[in-house]
Design goal:
- 51% of the residues lie in helices and 11% in strands.
- It has 477 residues and is an alpha+beta fold.
- Helix 3 (79-86) runs antiparallel to helix 7 and helix 12 (248-279) crosses helix 16 (397-414).
- Strand 6 (336-338) and strand 7 form a beta hairpin.
- The protein is built from 17 helices and twelve strands.
- The structure holds protoporphyrin IX containing FE.
- Protoporphyrin IX containing FE (HEM) binds at residues 90-91, 102, 257-258, 261-262, 265-266, 269, 323-325, 328, 386-388, 392, 394-396, 399-400.
């Protein structure tokens, strides 16, 4: 072993490390990780109770872990938490079962399937826009969660919007909430202690057990009800999974994972997109110009997406600043080398799109919302990783991208959403939920004359409207 291989990666020690365990708000933890990466560079080490965790902030190191040396790593300890809730599925299995599950699900996310879901997304976005009215006050986070749940329900289960999908989503959220504080602690302690922590916390947590029972019951009802539709091949993802596997328990577990991974992530991204647009009138104006030029007075279809580069850039840039999965991890299976450091088996790896995507080396003015930077991307591969990479790259990425751009285009063509409160909104959870509701007022746009129809009935034209309305937008980034 060379001299350099014995070096210990720099990092905080002692009490300072406790911040990693999520003592304080989740936002504090993210900013703490970011500050450590800025101070120590590509590899920061944290040592807690004899276990070492490594935070990586370098595109080449991320490529090594996610792709080149991926067989030296597996799911983090905390995956067991997700498995307790959603069962054994694509997101929670290890190889070789993972590869098998991925092959089974892949057709549900193929290009043609995504194009078909695009029709559902467009329909649900139009329905939302039709129900929205000028002057309406909205909790935009709750509104986006409803919209993406309708899309997930119809694309995953086929047919219409299913009441059991709401029940499932709520049960999932309650179960996650009940155990969310345990997550970082599980990562930080040795696996034997982690197992005991988990059993103790779940055993004592009545809310968690109730939520899990409710979840299982609604999944079963859903499968039974949809089996008929699915067998005639009209049942969306469910039909594909049922056709490939006759086992109800396995199908239920996959649906749980997809609903869990698939609707709140996109809802959060859209929520932050509206927040950022409301705070950046010039960006919003450019978005409207593109939508007016490409769509005029009609709603977008799947075929329009390729002609909406700025709308796509707004979604991409939102995910740079607010990646819905801000931190994910790996457990080291066997000793390996990263950046000249010897990384021993059993340690944990922390990958944080939130930290890496705010690295000033690759993203000048990293805190600023600048969709224009997507015109000519200058950063290397793996500097931008909101969907991860390698064999476990998000299977839902094309789904999320299609939904994000379709919803933004459909709604922004007809409305702007102005914040009614000023001030920055913080981050509340590992799913990047806003710390408080983001309340907005819908202001209808009259696209035939490119004017805003104001709440009081008077209308303002073009750029003057943007300037006049700036006062309504929050000053926060
Ligand atoms: C903005 C939206 C989304 C973001 C930011 C996101 C992010 C991620 C990330 C970072 C991973 C990889 C985690 C890791 O490597 O440990 C992942 C995996 C996954 N995502 Fe997504 N996701 C999004 C939307 C979706 C959607 C819409 C679906 C399904 C409909 C989905 C289903 C999954 C599944 C099943 C996995 C596990 C894949 C595997 O392990 O093979 N995600 N997601």
């Amino acid at each position: 072993m060379g001299e350099s291989m014995r070096r210990v990666a720099p990092g905080p020690r002692g009490l300072e490390v406790l911040q990693f365990l999520g003592l304080g708000t989740f936002e504090n933890t993210l900013h703490f990780l970011r500050a450590q990466a800025r101070k120590h560079g590509p590899v920061t080490s944290f040592r807690i109770l004899g276990r070492t965790l490594y935070l990586l902030d370098d595109p080449e190191l991320l490529r090594q872990v996610l792709v080149v040396q991926q067989h030296s790593f597996t799911r983090p300890v905390g995956t067991q938490l997700l498995r307790d809730i959603t069962g054994l599925n694509l997101a929670t299995t290890d190889e070789p079962l993972h590869r098998e599950r991925r092959r089974l699900l892949q057709p549900a996310f193929a290009r043609q399937a995504i194009a078909a879901y695009g029709g559902v997304m467009a329909h649900e976005a139009r329905r939302f826009a039709a129900e929205c009215f000028d002057g309406q006050l909205l909790d935009i986070g709750a509104a986006m969660a409803r919209l993406t749940l309708n899309v997930a329900s119809r694309t995953l289960f086929g047919g219409g919007v299913d009441p059991d999908a709401y029940a499932m989503s709520q049960a999932l959220a309650r179960a996650m909430h009940a155990v969310s504080r345990v997550g970082p602690i599980l990562e930080a302690v040795p696996p034997s202690i982690a197992g005991a922590c988990r059993r103790l916390s779940f055993g004592a947590n009545v809310e968690f057990r109730r939520a899990r029972t409710a979840l299982r019951a609604s999944v079963q009802r859903l499968i039974e009800r949809n089996r008929g539709i699915a067998e005639t091949n009209g049942g969306g993802v469910l039909s594909i999974v049922l056709a490939a596997s006759g086992d109800d328990a396995a199908v239920g577990d996959e649906l749980c994972a997809l609903l869990f991974a698939g609707h709140e992530t996109t809802a959060t991204a859209l929520t932050w997109a509206w927040y950022l647009l409301a705070s950046h009138p010039t960006v919003e104006a450019t978005l409207h110009e593109e939508l007016d030029a490409v769509l005029g007075e009609r709603d977008p279809t799947v075929d329009d997406i390729a002609n909406l580069p700025f709308t796509t850039a707004v979604f991409n840039e939102t995910l740079r600043l607010y990646p819905s999965a801000p931190v994910f991890g790996r457990r080291v299976l066997e000793d390996c080398e990263l950046c000249g450091y010897r990384i021993s088996g059993g340690s944990g790896i922390i990958i944080s799109p939130f930290v890496s995507q705010r690295n000033a080396r690759y993203f000048p003015a990293p805190e600023c919302f600048v969709p224009a930077r997507w015109q000519q991307p200058t950063w290397p591969d793996f500097a931008y990783v909101p969907f991860g990479g390698g064999a476990r790259r998000c299977i839902g990425e094309p789904f999320a991208r299609m939904e994000g751009v379709m919803v933004l285009a459909t709604l922004a063509r007809r409305y702007r959403f102005a914040r009614i409160e000023r001030g920055r909104v913080g981050i509340a959870s590992a799913m990047l939920r806003p710390a408080r509701p983001i309340v907005v007022r819908a202001i209808a746009r009259d696209t035939s004359t490119r004017r805003y129809v104001s709440v009081k009935g008077e209308s303002l034209t073009g750029r003057a409207a943007f300037r006049d309305r700036q006062g309504m937008a929050g000053a926060a980034r």
